[in-house]
């Protein structure tokens, strides 16, 4: 059966990830404006304390964490359209309200809503891509990151345009609200491919539980470590760059996004030629560790630009999507549920490590940005060690997992 009729659906779903890309990083660029809006204390140097903004950014991870346990089963039971529409609705609420509220509490709640949007979209888009593109499902899932990276590449230019035109910083938020509303309306009418529905147990029998080998558990933990590496960089490099003398750190993000885009095409080519994804899960995080160490040792403004590119390529260039795809392939009858489990680990990273980053910012003072990067290095090293173990036993565990599930 031709799947071409579902390509417009795939495009609409990729567009939701474009909006997700903006949502995941826009608050980090407007820390000072949002801190002032939400009543943060002013520091001795005339800037606002941004630890509260980091807490709201961390709330996105909490929203995802709350959502995944039931979003995955909803997707496997009722179809991919339902969670996609819920995700669009949540983003509409977030973008329409977060830059207008003057309440830190409400901002935190809206951060949770944005995280819920991310969670619902993940359990719709990942399974849908693998069902639409089938044999190329893993590559198609990696390219969800392309939508995110395009958004994050364009965002600094949009921020620059808004500033040059003397428009309010809320402009980008409003544009995204309109865009997600249009995409959501399209998803209502677009066709979705057939999927293997998770059936209820018949005759009162207990539903068979998913069985996990050590490799599956490692993949879940890698959902945490790989997310930590790029989330901390994306949301916390700005202060470190400023401390090194960079006036406009948003330019680093453009190089970061270029690195992501290039990595996606390189990864797709490598996978098409038969390279095992588990090998990438060692090499890429290892290079990320070297990059972070170089940033801490060199302490010059120029180092941030190549570091931004390298972190985009090796930390954010589809590594989490590779982890998810491999894990999902182990559980063909529970794709959305397995997506949820890996993304729960990613959400814990989002919430926990950014909360820790906020704490390190508060207690570390001028050394806060460096302490955050040291923390990032430690978590990423753990991920590299786990990936080495995964490679040692992957083939045996993958065969056993797919048979059992």
Automatic annotation (TrEMBL):
Gene3D superfamilies: MFS general substrate transporter like domains. The chain crosses the membrane at residues 12-30, 50-70, 82-98, 104-121, 142-163, 169-192, 212-234, 254-272, 281-303, 309-328, 340-365, 371-390. GO terms for molecular function: transmembrane transporter activity. Its main location: membrane. One of its GO terms (cellular component) is plasma membrane. Keywords: Membrane, Transmembrane, Transmembrane helix, Transport. SUPFAM superfamilies: MFS general substrate transporter. Residues 9-395 form the Major facilitator superfamily (MFS) profile domain. It holds the Pfam family MFS_1. It is a multi-pass membrane protein. It is found in: Cell membrane. Belongs to the major facilitator superfamily. This is MFS transporter. It comes from Candidatus Scatomorpha intestinavium. The lineage of its organism: Bacteria, Bacillati, Bacillota, Clostridia, Eubacteriales.
């Amino acid at each position: 059966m031709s799947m071409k009729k579902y390509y417009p659906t795939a495009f609409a779903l990729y567009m939701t990830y474009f909006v997700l890309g903006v949502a995941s990083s826009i608050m980090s660029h407007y820390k000072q404006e949002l801190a002032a809006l939400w009543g943060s204390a002013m520091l001795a140097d005339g800037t606002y304390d941004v630890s509260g903004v980091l807490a709201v950014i961390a709330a996105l991870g909490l929203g995802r964490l709350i959502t995944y346990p039931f979003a995955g089963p909803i997707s496997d039971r009722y179809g991919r359209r339902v969670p996609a529409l819920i995700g669009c609705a949540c983003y509409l609420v977030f973008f329409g309200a977060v830059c207008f509220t003057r309440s830190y509490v409400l901002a935190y709640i809206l951060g949770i809503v944005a995280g819920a949007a991310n969670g619902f979209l993940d359990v719709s888009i990942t399974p849908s891509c693998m069902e639409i593109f089938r044999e190329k499902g893993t590559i198609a899932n990696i390219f969800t990151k392309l939508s995110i990276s395009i958004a994050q590449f364009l965002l600094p230019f949009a921020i620059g345009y808004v500033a040059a035109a003397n428009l309010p910083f809320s402009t980008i938020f409003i544009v995204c609200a309109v865009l997600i509303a249009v995409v959501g309306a399209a998803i209502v009418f677009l066709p979705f491919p057939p999927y293997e529905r998770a059936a209820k147990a018949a005759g009162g029998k207990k539903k068979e539980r998913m069985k996990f080998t050590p490799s599956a558990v490692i993949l879940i933990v890698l959902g945490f470590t790989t997310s930590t590496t790029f989330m901390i960089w994306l949301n916390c490099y700005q202060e470190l760059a400023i401390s090194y003398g960079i006036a406009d750190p948003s330019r680093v993000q453009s190089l970061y996004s270029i690195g992501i885009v290039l990595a996606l095409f390189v990864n797709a080519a490598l996978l098409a030629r038969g390279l095992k994804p588990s090998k990438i899960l060692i090499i890429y995080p290892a290079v990320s560790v070297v990059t972070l160490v170089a940033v801490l040792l060199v302490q010059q403004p120029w180092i941030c630009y190549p570091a931004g590119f390298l972190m985009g390529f090796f930390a954010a260039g589809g590594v989490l999507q590779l982890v998810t795809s491999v894990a999902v392939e182990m559980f063909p009858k529970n794709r959305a549920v397995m997506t949820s489990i890996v993304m729960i680990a990613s959400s814990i990273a989002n919430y926990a490590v950014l909360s820790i980053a906020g704490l390190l910012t508060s207690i570390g003072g001028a050394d806060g940005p460096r302490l955050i990067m040291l923390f990032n290095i430690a978590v990423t090293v753990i991920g590299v060690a786990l990936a080495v173990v995964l490679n040692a036993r992957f083939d045996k565990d993958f065969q056993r997992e797919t048979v059992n599930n």
